[in-house]
Amino acid sequence: MPDAIAPASVRPSIFDARGRWRAWWDARRQPRESQALTQRNIYIVPSRAGLAFCLTLLLLLVVSINYQLSLGFALTFLLAGSAAASMQMTHGSLRGLTLHLKPLVPAFDGEAAVLEVVVTNPGKARLGVGFGMDLGVRPIPLAYAEIAAQGQTSVHLSWLAPGRGLHALPVLRAESRYPFGLFRAWTIWRPAGQQWVYPRPETPTPPWPQADAAQGDDRHAARTGSGTEFEGVRAYRRGDTLRQVVWKKAARTGEMISRETAGAVQREMHFQWSQAQGLDTEARLSRLAAWVTAADAAGHAWSLRLPGTELAPDNGSAHRHAALQALARW
């Protein structure tokens, strides 16, 4: 699965006429869930090597005319026919492909956000197809792939978002110079969707604020973290010790199961904006993100309270994403 990393897009200056024109043109493209490559959205021009080849053909033609060289005419027209066939093959290496994105995975601020592009090929094998992000920066880093006949290929493209929050996806470019590099065919696709970028958790994770044991009966409230009495099994959680893992079941089924002991107290954590006093806004968000991530990994129930936003005590992946999104929007 090819991979390419691209920087975040750069806003063109008022003196960059080409960049402003590109920004205007990109804004006119409607976001699409998928893109089928046809003659209407594939563009092709001679490459630098192709222009040099054309000048060479012109020189051969002039020399052949000047000296009346029959073999010179034959060579010139043979090379010209090869170039015309190359143009058709270059355009055909993109024509018929379909591009679509897999569900987006949120990223943390400062980390590369990954887009997985699935390329569907209904025809013969395609070679030397490059994929990258058209961010107005030259050169565009490309990830090259070979798409099997009547098959699919996944291409991973990474980019750095300008900061936390919800961001529109960058424009994607598919390009081919196959087979001789004389022509460059490309297409532009603005995928529909938005990328979440969460605040980067503080490292190492700071000590948790004071937490209360979850409300329950006296037997549960009396448990301590040092208990070892066996009570059952549960799904493996990150942070479980190797001693808790039921290795026989893991070896037999491949499923990670952990032993539950009487010392595993269900705690209810309460995270508030005021608990990170003395820090600037970004540092506060980073600390709260670290607490949320650590509490979720430990399996505790937790709540989050921000000015204007409050999440009730809960746990699980959906609760964690809701909290991190609230922090990203702050």
TrEMBL record:
Give TM segment ranges. Answer: 42-63
Positions of the region Disordered? 198-230
Keywords, A to Z, come to: Membrane, Transmembrane, Transmembrane helix
Q: Could you identify this protein by its name?
A: DUF58 domain-containing protein
What is the species of this protein?
A: Scleromatobacter humisilvae
Taxonomic lineage: Bacteria, Pseudomonadati, Pseudomonadota, Betaproteobacteria, Burkholderiales
